[in-house]
Design a protein that fits this description.
Structural class: alpha/beta
Distance between the termini: 20 Å
Radius of gyration: 23 Å
Helix content: 25-40%
CATH superfamily of the largest domain: Glycosidases
Number of helices: 14
Number of domains: 3
Bound molecules: 1-deoxynojirimycin, calcium ion
Strand order of the largest sheet: 12-11-10-6-3-2-14-13
Mean pLDDT: 96
C-alpha cells in the first residue's frame, strides 16, 4: 500500500516531535519535592540538546491536585507550587529562544470543585443561574436519593454526587464523568464557551503556541441525559455531534494569531474514522494516536494501527501522530517486556522481562520517529524509564480510592525524572530533598548524567535519531510505502532514499540492498537485523 504525502508546504505542527512534560515530576528547583518552573527553566538546554521541536505541559494551573491538575481552580494562574505567572511567561520566552514551541493543556470538560463557579453553584441552590453552568439534576426515587441516570465515572463508581443544599437538606446531584472533585460543565450554557475561549486567548496572548485538549470527545452530552445502554456501544456522553461546532469556533480563534496557534486532541475514540472527524481542516490540527499506543508488539497489530490511522487521517488531510507512552498508561519499556496478553493491562505483578522491554522500546522509538507525521516523547521515554510498582501507601492517583482500592492507578508512570547522582532524588531536586513519589533505588544507571556520554545509551539513541530526523528530507510529514518483507518484519520506504525495517520476529533477517546504515536500535548480527531491532537505511 502506498499513501501519498498530504501537503508540500509543511507547517511545523505536521511533523513536530513534541516532548511531554509532567511538571510535577520533571525538575524540582526549590527542593520541596515537587517539580516547578524554576527546575523546568534550568533544564531547557537539555531539551534543546535532545532536539525536540515543542513541549506539551500537563496542567500547571492553580489546582487542589485531586487529579494531578486536571481539576482546575483558576485557568489563568499558575499553581503556586510550580511558580508564578511571571515565571511561566519567562519560561515561554526562554523556550522560544531555544527554538522550542510550547503547548499547554486545556481542560474544558470539567473543573475543580474549588473553582469559583462551582462554589457559587453550591451556595446558590437549586434552580439558580449559577447551577445551570453545570449538570445539576434532582435525584430519582421517592426521596431523590437515587442518581439521575446510570452513568458511571471513568475513575470508578457512579458519575453523580448528591449535594447538601445551603439549608442543610440532602439535595440535587451533579454530574462528574471523572472524580467527584471534577464537576462537568454544561457546554449548552453560553458562559462556558465564552470562558474557555477567553482562557485560550489569555494564553495565546502570552505567546503560547497551542493546546492539548483534554478529553476532547466528552464535552457535549445528549439532550435529556438518557441512560447509558452498555449493550449498543453508544454513549450519550461521548462523541456527540455538537462537539465539532466547539472546535470550529476554537480554530477560528487560533487562526487569527500570527503565527496561527494549534491544537492536539486527546480523544480515546475508535475507529480511526471517528478520530479523523476531530481533525478536519476547520477543527483541531492533530490528535494523539492511541491505536498505535495500544497496539501489541506484533507485526500484525502495529501494521494494522499504522494503516488504519494513516488512511483515516490522511483522508481528511491531517497528519498522523505516533505516541508510545504518556502520564496515563504503563510506560512502554515495561509494557513491551510483558507477554502480549498483558501488554495493555494496568495490573501489578504482571511478569516483566526488563531487558526485552528496553530492547523493544529502542526499536519502537526508531519506528515511531520514522513514520510520517509528528511524534510524542513522554518525559523519561528518552531514558528508557520503566513503570514503577509503588507501595500503596504513597499512591495519589484518584483511581486507587475511587476503585475501592482495586486499581492502583497511574502514579507508576509519574515518578520524577532521574537527572544525576547515585541515590534519590537523583538530581530531580537538591540533595536531601524528598520527591513527591519515591524514586527506585536502581535508577542510578538510568539518569541523564549516567547516559550522557555512553554512545550506546537510550538517551543517545534518541538524540541521534532526532538529529537525523531533523536533517533528512524524507522524515517528518509525507507519505510512505510498505515494502515486501517476511511476515515478522515491518518494512517501509520514505522518499527520498530512506528505508525503515523493524524485526518483530525471533530470527535475524537480511537487510535489503542499501547504501548506508544510518542508525540501528541495537547491534546488527553479522550484517543481519536481529530480533526486536529497528534499522534506518539510506537507499538510493
Ligand atoms: C485525561 C488526562 O490525561 C488524565 O490524566 C485525566 O485524569 C483525565 N483526562 C481527566 O481530566
Ligand atoms: Ca519545587
Amino acid at each position: 500500500m502506498s499513501v501519498e504525502p498530504p501537503a508540500s508546504d509543511v507547517p511545523w505542527w505536521r511533523e513536530a516531535v513534541v516532548y511531554q512534560i509532567y511538571p510535577r515530576s520533571f525538575a524540582d528547583g526549590n527542593g520541596d519535592g515537587t517539580g516547578d518552573l524554576a527546575g523546568l527553566r534550568s533544564r531547557l538546554p537539555y531539551l534543546a540538546d535532545l532536539g525536540v521541536d515543542a513541549v506539551w505541559l500537563n496542567p500547571w494551573y492553580v489546582s487542589p491536585l485531586a487529579d494531578g491538575g486536571y481539576d482546575v481552580e483558576d485557568y489563568r494562574r499558575i499553581n503556586p507550587e510550580f511558580g508564578t505567572l511571571a515565571e511561566a511567561e519567562a519560561f515561554v520566552a526562554e523556550a522560544h529562544e531555544h527554538g522550542i514551541r510550547v503547548l499547554l493543556d486545556i481542560v474544558p470538560n470539567h473543573l475543580s470543585e474549588q473553582h469559583p463557579w462551582f462554589r457559587a453553584a453550591l451556595a446558590a441552590g437549586p434552580g439558580s443561574p449559577e447551577r445551570k453552568r453545570f449538570w445539576f439534576r434532582p435525584g430519582r426515587g421517592e426521596n431523590g436519593d437515587e442518581p439521575p441516570n446510570n452513568w458511571r465515572s471513568i475513575f470508578g463508581g457512579g458519575a453523580w454526587e448528591r449535594v447538601t443544599e445551603p439549608d442543610g437538606t440532602p439535595g440535587e446531584w451533579y454530574l462528574h464523568l471523572f472524580g467527584v472533585e471534577q464537576p462537568d460543565v454544561n457546554w449548552n450554557h453560553p458562559d462556558v464557551a465564552a470562558e474557555m475561549e477567553a482562557v485560550l486567548r489569555f494564553w495565546f496572548d502570552r505567546g503560547v503556541d497551542g493546546f492539548r485538549v483534554d478529553v476532547a470527545d466528552l464535552l457535549v452530552k445528549e439532550d435529556g441525559l438518557p441512560d447509558d445502554d452498555k449493550e449498543i456501544g453508544y454513549r450519550p456522553w461521548k462523541g456527540q455531534d455538537g462537539i465539532h461546532d466547539i472546535y470550529r469556533s476554537w480554530r477560528t480563534i487560533a487562526d487569527k494569531y500570527d503565527p496561527p496557534r494549534v491544537f492536539v486532541a486527546e480523544a480515546w475514540v475508535k475507529p480511526p474514522e471517528l478520530l479523523a472527524r476531530f481533525v478536519r481542516s476547520d477543527e483541531l490540527h492533530t490528535a494523539f494516536n492511541f491505536d498505535f499506543l495500544t497496539a501489541l508488539w506484533t507485526p500484525a497489530d502495529l501494521r494494522h494501527a499504522v494503516d488504519t490511522t494513516t488512511e483515516a487521517l490522511f483522508t481528511v488531510g491531517a497528519p498522523a501522530t505516533w505516541v508510545l507512552s504518556n502520564h496515563d498508561v504503563v510506560r512502554h519499556a515495561t509494557r513491551y517486556g510483558r507477554s502480549t496478553d498483558e501488554q495493555n493491562s494496568r495490573m501489578p505483578d504482571v511478569p516483566v522481562d526488563d531487558a526485552l522491554g528496553l530492547r523493544r522500546a529502542r526499536a519502537a522509538a526508531l519506528l515511531s520517529l520514522a513514520l510520517p507525521g509528528g511524534a510524542y516523547i513522554y518525559q523519561g521515554d528518552e531514558l528508557g524509564l520503566p513503570w514503577v510498582e509503588l507501595p500503596v501507601e504513597v499512591l495519589q492517583c484518584p483511581h486507587w480510592v475511587r476503585s475501592g482500592f482495586t486499581r492502583k492507578g497511574r502514579d507508576g508512570c509519574r515518578v520524577p525524572i532521574p537527572w544525576s547522582g547515585d541515590r534519590s532524588p537523583y538530581g530531580f531536586g537538591p540533595d536531601g530533598s524528598k520527591p513527591w513519589l519515591p524514586m527506585p533505588a536502581e535508577w542510578a544507571t538510568l539518569s541523564v548524567a549516567a547516559q550522557d556520554t555512553d554512545p550506546d545509551s537510550h538517551l543517545n539513541l534518541y538524540r541521534t535519531a532526532l538529529r537525523i530526523r531533523r536533517g533528512h528530507p524524507a522524515l517528518g510529514d509525507g507519505g510512505f510505502t510498505w515494502l515486501d518483507s517476511p511476515p515478522q518484519v515491518l518494512a517501509f520506504s520514505r522518499e527520498p532514499g530512506f528505508v525503515c525495517l523493524v524485526n518483530l520476529g525471533v530470527d535475524p533477517v537480511d537487510l535489503p540492498p542499501h547504501d548506508e546504515v544510518l542508525l540501528a536500535s541495537g547491534s546488527l548480527d553479522d550484517g543481519r537485523l536481529p530480533s526486536d531491532t529497528t534499522v534506518w537505511l539510506a537507499s538510493s
